[in-house]
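Slide 14.
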Amino acid sequence: MSEMSNYLVDDIEKFLQINRDSENEEQSASLRKLLSVQDKISIFKNIDPDELKAILYNLKFVKFKFKDYVVEQKDISEEIFFIIDGECQVFHNKKKVGKLRAGDIFGEAGAIFKSQRNASVVCASEQATLLSFCIDENNVEFCAPALAILYKNLASEINTKLEEINLEFVKK
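Slide 15: predicted structure.
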């Protein structure tokens, strides 16, 4: 287990057990699936699996069909999405501005800043499977190291996207 402030291991285990007890069957199954591929998702790298369980909620695998909206511009939501398979297109003010593929993450800015969605995302393949989740910041005293790693990984993801946008802007 990674370093966790000065809380007793028993206290942390009680907190994690409360979280486990409150999970429904679907949530538990989704969590098990996520943990089996955790190292393949960049934003979850270097996070202890027990801590990851404690900082994520509303975890689910969602299937979308061609032309289904995943998110709509100006909506407010704290959901973050990871594309497992399929493709999505990104629209800003109804203009196509990008494409997302398996392995891409989106929605992180809305989750971090609690702000409106900057764009709409629409399923562009016959079917797409996405992992959807929210970050639980309510128990930061138990999971501060894990949250710090997660936010560092998310900041890196946002930085990469900004670099890509800057390169596109310079090309024009």
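Speaker note: The longest helix spans residues 140-171.
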